[in-house]
Amino acid sequence: MISIKSKREIELMRKTCELAKNTLEYIEDFIKPGVSTEELNTLCHEYILKHGAYPSPLDYHGFPKSVCTSLNEVICHGIPSEKDILKDGDILNIDVTTYLNKFHGDTNKTFLVGNVSPEVRKLVEVTYECMRKGIDQVKPGGHIGDIGAVISEYANDLGYSVVEDYCGHGIGREFHEDPQVVHVGKRGTGAQIKPGMTFTIEPMINLGKKDGKVLKDGWTVVTKDKKWSAQFEHTILVTETGHEILTLRSDEKA
After folding, report:
1. What digits encode the pLDDT tens for the residues 78-101?
2. If one looks up domain 7-245 in CATH, what number appears?
3. Domain assignments of the chain as residue spans, ordered by start
4. What residues pair up with 160 in beta bridges, in sequence order?
5. Does pTM surpass 0.85?
6. How far is Cα 180 from Cα 199, in angstroms, rounded to an integer?
């Protein structure tokens, strides 16, 4: 069942999504060479608790940390660690989900660490544009498949691959709700988009092939060919006339 949010529920979604967004903005100043992903996790954890919320990933199906930190060839679900020390030229995705007033808000961003190569910088830029092109498809009467279609067409035309094993999702009282929002697809297919729906769009785009594998920790997903991967994510509300990005950061256009 796809949840259609009431006006009251939408206001609660706005609040938790604002906190998730604020957490990402807060942590950016700490992302620099020499910092461990464990330090970043601790800072995010403390910030979220300070603002009266709980980090949704912590203990979710056994996940051991408060945010996901996916470094370079890690596609998603990277576990923060004291051993993962940021270096000049790295890229790092931090995925934040907050649980506030019984609602979840979910967002992530791939950060550039120091002097990133032009090839990798372009990957990050294309990934962000993939997300925004997917968001642009969100309007009443459309279909979930429209989102994946435009993302995959744009990425593939530029020579990148789109991860198919992981997708966006409905979100609200539950961390993961219906519908699944795949990042490849055909226009006019999938669930119809209706006002009051809230879901994430979070494409994972690879420099190499689309295939990934899960490491022995049971969570971390890396590219099989070890080429780098980037991701961006927003939580979206479907409005009567289009959409609203609930996790829009201050450095972005609506």
Report:
1. 999 999 999 999 999 999 999 999
2. 3.90.230.10
3. 7-245
4. none
5. yes
6. 8
Residues facing 229 on adjacent strands: 206
H or E segment and range at residue 7: helix 7-27
Sorted by sequence, the CB contacts under 8 Å of residue 195 that are 6+ apart come out as 4, 140, 238, 239, 240
Distances (CA, A) of 124 to 58, 67, 81, 161, 202: 27, 20, 23, 13, 13
Residue of 12, 232, 251 whose CA lies nearest to 111: 232
Tokens 């206001």, residue located: 11
Q: Which residue has the tokens 């070890």?
A: 226
241 vs 199: CA distance, rounded Å: 16
